[in-house]
Amino acid sequence: MPASDASIPDAIIAVPVRNEEERIAACLRAIDAQAGLAPGSLGLVLFLNNCTDRTEAIVAATVPALSIPVRVLTETFAGAHAGWARRRAMDAAAAWLGEARPGGIILSTDADSRVPPDWVARNGAAIRAGADAVAGRVELDAAEAALLPPSLPARGRLEDRYDALITEAEARIDPDPHDPWPCHRTAIGATLAVTRSAYQAVGGMPEIPLGEDGAFIARLIQHGLRVRHATDVCVTISARLAGRAPGGVADTIRARCEEPDALCDARMEPFIRAVRRYAWRRRFRRQHGQGLLARDLSWARRLGIDAAEAGRIAALPLGQAVADAERASPRLAYRPIGPRQLPREIRIAQAGVAVLRGALALTQILRRIAVPSPRRHIMDAERGRS
Q1: FRET pair for 56, CA 20 to 30 Å: which of 10, 89, 169, 351?
Q2: What is the DSSP string of 152-220?
Q3: Residue 151 and residue 71: Cα distance in Å, rounded?
Q4: How far apart are CA 4 and CA 2, in angstroms?
Q5: Quick check: is 264 in a domain?
Q6: Within a domain: residue 374?
């Protein structure tokens, strides 16, 4: 390795920062406490934008005491938003890795979050196992969550239970070999990791005001890249009601405090409808892989997609084809449920997932019966000689 490349870290954490004087020091201490890494293998980019409080002074006082190399960028921009700031931070991390580290890892978290000591190591392990990107889970800060109205954590527990059930149903009906069960479907900027090559391949973080993290994961999947939704990667996030990014977690928490009956996330649709969606995706993937979509447009007629649009979709790579078909079909529009429907849908989902588990267990038994083990072959051969 050239001497100039020796000082480049293998992984770089990118953090957009705006007015986080109360939480930035804890965020930086948590990042600096990463364990299980080789010395010099981790770097940090802080992108301070439009700060008007003491954040810059706290960063300036804290950074010299950190054990990892840090690059601090500062900018004031009237048109700033979450997607713009996250992209600037991650672009700076990609530039630091440079061409010398195409497989280097760019990680993203937030300035009001606290990552666990094994966060980088667990993300790195998932990428070494074959993932191009890793999406982790989040948990609300327990002390801050305790101050919220009791109905909100109760609703959150129901949503988490239902989300786990429909995710398991999806993983069993339409399995992704690169993202096997157990997995989840969280996509949040507080815990993302991606190789530099994958980041560059999809054009970087979408520069949009809201939902840049979910759009980024969707973009990776549409490009056929391997995304692991790792259940063992979890970050603590703030449960505050006044956030820095419009449409972020704080706005969601506040909105649900103000409107307890607000609909759940889009993917939390009735269980029967969700199962139909997953079964459709499975058939669609199979037909796409066999080159049948363009030859037989009956699938498009069933979904209410006109022939011209169906022909365009059929010619797309698989990930893009699935996403565009779901957007184009009025019959695949998401119809999320409300919190009052959650208990009933959970009961239905528990029964449905139990059936799916049983079907899988039966399939595995039948396969073992149909494919004799090497030991059985030997025993049969010995019987034949006797």
Answers
A1: 10
A2: HHHHHHHHHHHHHHHHHHHHHHS--TTSPSS------TTSEEEEHHHHHHTTSS---SS-HHHHHHHHH
A3: 42
A4: 5
A5: no
A6: no
| Average confidence (pLDDT) over 20-45 | 97
Question: In this predicted model, what pLDDT tens digit does every residue of 253-293 receive, in sequence order?
Answer: 777 777 889 999 999 999 999 999 999 999 999 999 999 99
Q: What is the pLDDT of residues 55-76, one digit of tens each?
A: 999 999 999 999 999 999 999 9
**CA nearest neighbour of 29 among 65, 70, 69:** 65
**Residue in 373, 177, 348 with CA at minimum distance from that of residue 273:** 348
Supply the DSSP string of 284-352, one letter for each residue.
HHHHHHTT-TTT-THHHHHHT--HHHHHHHHTS-HHHHHHHHHHH-GGG---PPPGGGHHHHHHHHHHH
Tokens of residue 4, six digits: 């100039």
Whether residue 89 sits in one domain with residue 40:
yes
* Domain, as residue range, for 283: 271-356
The per-residue pLDDT for 254 is 72
* Two tokens, residue 355: 């059936």
Longest dimension (CA), the chain: 89
Residues 225 and 280 in one domain: no
Q: How far apart are the first and last CA of the chain?
A: 64
Q: What is the pLDDT of residue 385?
A: 55
Q: Indicate whether this model's pTM tops 0.70.
A: yes
Residue 1: predicted pLDDT? 38
Of 208, 232, 258, the residue at which a domain comes to its end is 258
Q: Which residue has the tokens 């195409």?
A: 102
Q: Are residues 155 and 286 in the same domain?
A: no
| Domain annotation covers residue 198 | yes
- Cβ 222 vs Cβ 319: under 8 Å: yes
Nearest partner of 260 among 338, 163, 335, judged by Cα = 338
Query: Which residues, in sequence order, are CB contacts of 152 under 8 Å at separation 6+?
Result: 253, 256, 257, 260
- Pick the closest to residue 272 from 174, 345, 356, 173 (CA basis): 345
Same domain, 246 and 276: no
- In a shared domain, residues 212 and 307: no
Model confidence band, residue 186 (pLDDT cutoffs 50, 70, 90) = very high
Name the domain count of the chain. 2
